[in-house]
């Protein structure tokens, strides 16, 4: 039976901060834990958006690929989607809708999966550029990130709210990715404005944090940076 | 089939820091996720040690009780024990054996379950005192904590190593409890000296973090204290 109470996460954000960009989990394993989610790909190559079991990868050119079972990811979160609340929202921007979700669901201390499907007056994304070995630190890797905007676009926002207590393991607060219905535009969301969309929220009682314990680079990395929070804040927001 | 790759944790250390001491999970549920572990009981009433499926509670008088299925816990970690490494250790103190485990297993970035069964030249524990409502903050609750020592005692150390990245969710580094074979002495370990013991270590690739999402007090608590790390360091070490 599919577990709809848990967000499964492979890898941690802290691993990306120190440049552990190599894929350590095949997509075939990832999708055993959920049919919707977000992440990045091997070599930190773009923004991953998982919708209805398909694993889309938006790369720095703006192109959208579909990852196959043997492709790997260093960091991704997925869940089996079964929202408790579905509602129509319209004429609302990203800041407003996030405040609405936080208030309606008393977000703060637990995990939630969020989707918004519909039409957007405006969508503004960015895409992390592919890295090569020897990998730099995150702060270096994201110095130049392509940004993309599109108006009047139909598509799906997929993402999570995570308690700030788990900042470092993951992104504290909202972390949302986008893929359009034509599958030629998407990325890590910077801001957006909804025309009309179906907002769905699934409260989750579990985080299943999976770590690549047999990976040599992971085992020997120093993930206890004194400035971890600052690195994350500057990278993710 | 029992999952031997995961440490299951109910609640977080941060919840204790802000005084969420009420039990939010029955023991009957907790023991579905493991047969060994540590925690505390409803009302922050003592130190819990789970050995071979029995849930012992060491209370502030020093007395040891056994918790029943309907007793509840606010915070506990358990796993199904299947150590990959078993070895005899002797004439080694707590600092030395922890350094040995850290080096032998390259601890730092992943979770591990640890037991040491045998005879101890010296064992020094403390036990958190039961609290009543309205609960104080952790720093107030543990201002006076009974300490206990015993020489030449046989028993079992049970506990975990957790990456410091998860400090706040849990205790970063080693967190060890003790129960003696006669079941009349134990607690949260401050220091010890091994005469001879079997050391067993189980590397774990998953943390399953469970949160009491339906608990009103949990949902409304402010768990984002600026001084969370300081509170934890002063409380747990």
Automatic annotation (TrEMBL), chains A, B:
EC number in record: 4.1.1.5
One function term, GO molecular function aspect: acetolactate decarboxylase activity
Biological processes per GO annotation: acetoin biosynthetic process
Pathway given in the UniProt record: Polyol metabolism; (R,R)-butane-2,3-diol biosynthesis; (R,R)-butane-2,3-diol from pyruvate: step 2/3
Pfam family, one: AAL_decarboxy
InterPro entries xref list: Acetolactate_a_deCO2ase
Reactions performed catalytically: (2S)-2-acetolactate + H(+) = (R)-acetoin + CO2
Domain of life: Bacteria
Keywords from the UniProt entry: Acetoin biosynthesis, Decarboxylase, Lyase
Enzyme class: lyase
Family: Belongs to the alpha-acetolactate decarboxylase family.
Name this polypeptide is given: Alpha-acetolactate decarboxylase
Organism, as annotated: Paucilactobacillus oligofermentans DSM 15707 = LMG 22743
